[in-house]
Amino acid sequence: MTPDYVYILSANILAVIAILGFFLNFAVLYVVIKDRKNLWKPINLIIVNLSIQDIFIAIFGCPLAFMAAISHGGLWTQLRCQWYAFMMTTLGIGNIGSITMMAIERWLMVRMSQTLSVGKAFMLAGAVWIYAFSLSLPPIIGWGEYGPESLNISCSVAWENYSSHNGKYIIYLFFFGSILPIAIIIASYISIIQHLKKSTDRIRNHYDFLIHYFFGLLEQCKQRDLKVIKMVVLMTVSFIITWAPYSYVALALYFFNYPAPPLVLVLPCLFAKSSIIYNPIIYAFRNEQFLKSFKKFFHINQ
To answer: Any coiled-coil ranges, and where (predicted)?
Structure first.
């Protein structure tokens, strides 16, 4: 028997996540679209894609889970649970896909000296959705299974179903939805760091004034890139931290039949959903141009 306080606590946390997640991500969308002249850039368009995904979680995912918590898990029918799980899996995978695309965009900019066009940024955003659907659709068509989780407060992959076809889908999902994108992100940043280190070494090894001046300008450019890189790294770390407990519990449930207590079942799921709050905060405080536009359009004194 699950204590009432677990459902009450879950409902309150979900309400806070939904409200903050919606308004913070809406502010990002509003400012970027409103100030297209200054902010309509490839990296920002990928962030817009991420904000759209987070807004869907805020207006659909959290409220339905909130109602499920209020009803002590009595909200879900089989069909409702399946489609909720499909939607949330698509959006969650879309999040890591968007963050991966941001790392690739930074790698192209810094390491390969290639600037994406706005059109190509839109294509990358579309590719993220295709990638997300390719991982979330299999249970809908019979490979893998969706079901209730977290004391019936939410629905996701049926981690506690030990059938072989579900196990193969879980391995597929974790490899392409977690291990592979994180590996791409890490490889991108290692390559960027190596490139920036070589640029710095070149500056230190040249004493001719004109050459030193040229590389000094180059380094200033790199420093501007570095601010964006730090922002993307923070988003990546934030995403991994918020989703790691959920991943560990899910794997423990499937592979080790872990008898988790109620709070251990619920809190990782809620912590994962809270990721929709952190991205717009990191973006706002790490992007000087966005802060300037934000203060302008919301009439905040400088």
So the answer is: none
